[in-house]
Design a protein that fits this description.
alpha/beta, Rossmann fold, 7-stranded mixed β-sheet, 9 strands, 19% strand
């Protein structure tokens, strides 16, 4: 069989399993098996496929048919133009989260804190995009997630400008740590009663603690918004990613905590995605 024939069979198998965009996923997995960029597959499509590599590819296709995320199968996910290591211990970085990065890069800051850092994709992207004189800290309750973030920091050669601490939100910080100009977070915002409606790729395979607060989806925001001002410089900013129906509720939480200049920013699809608040200057 040629690789073109193998790829057609794989695409048909994923389509039969009701996997969204089966052709794209089949190409991504084949590129991973062959160690080439997906754009080069057309150049080798007529080549005969070795049986051993076919079996390896078919095993990945079978797992994808069971809705294992592609990033878990390849161990990598692209985010803001960079490749990040991904495991089942961290939330799969998503394009929607790039809206948070875009908003953060419009602000003046040198010290940034990322709460619930997961793979570190937000924090490390900010430090990579603004290299001069910046420093960051990431916290996460999951030590396994922090291990992934540390590997990503090393891969991006940022480990000299970042530190990671295990613990619950801001409680993870050492008492001696200085205040931050910017705090960012993509906390679990899916309500408990929304979990059954998640796609299998998400609900079955991504870490539950990164998805839901086991309540109304606002629990993490209540904790973060209440504690953040004590760790922000005067005029410092808080930026949080939200679910598309949570803009008003999170903005109200910030207002009650004394934040100023509160704004809700949409993602590229026009859905509410990020809430901004600023600690007033005295």
């Amino acid at each position: 069989m040629t690789w073109d024939q193998v790829l057609r069979q794989a695409t048909a198998a994923l389509a039969a399993a009701a996997v969204p965009d089966p052709a794209r996923d089949a190409r991504r997995l084949l590129a991973h098996v062959l160690g080439v960029d997906a754009s080069r597959l057309s150049l080798i499509g007529g080549d005969m496929a070795p049986p051993g590599m076919i079996r390896l590819f078919e095993d990945l296709i079978a797992q994808r048919g069971r809705r294992v995320p592609v990033a878990h199968l390849t161990g990598q996910r692209q985010f803001y133009g960079r490749s990040f290591q991904v495991t089942p211990d961290v939330l799969d970085p998503r394009p929607d989260t790039e809206t948070l990065v875009d908003q953060a890069l419009r602000l003046p800051w040198t010290r940034v804190l990322d709460l619930g850092t997961g793979s570190g994709c937000i924090l490390l992207t900010l430090l990579a995009e603004r290299r001069s004189g910046t420093f960051g800290i990431g916290t996460d309750l999951s030590k396994a997630a922090l291990a992934v973030a540390m590997r990503n920091a090393a891969d991006l050669r940022l480990d000299d400008r970042v530190q990671f601490y295990s613990g619950h939100w801001l409680d993870a910080l050492p008492h001696s740590v200085a205040a931050f100009d910017l705090i960012v977070s993509n906390p679990p915002y899916i309500a408990l009663d929304e979990l059954p409606g998640l796609a299998p790729d998400v609900g079955l395979y991504e870490p539950r603690m990164a998805l839901t607060d086991e309540g109304d989806g606002l629990g993490a925001y209540r904790t973060i918004v209440r504690a953040a001002p004590a760790h922000l410089t005067q005029g410092g900013a808080l930026l949080v990613e939200i679910g598309p129906t949570q803009g008003r509720a999170v903005a109200d939480l910030m207002a009650a905590a004394g934040f100023a200049g509160i704004a809700v920013h949409p993602d590229l699809d026009g859905r509410d995605r990020v809430v901004f608040g600023q600690k007033p200057r005295i």
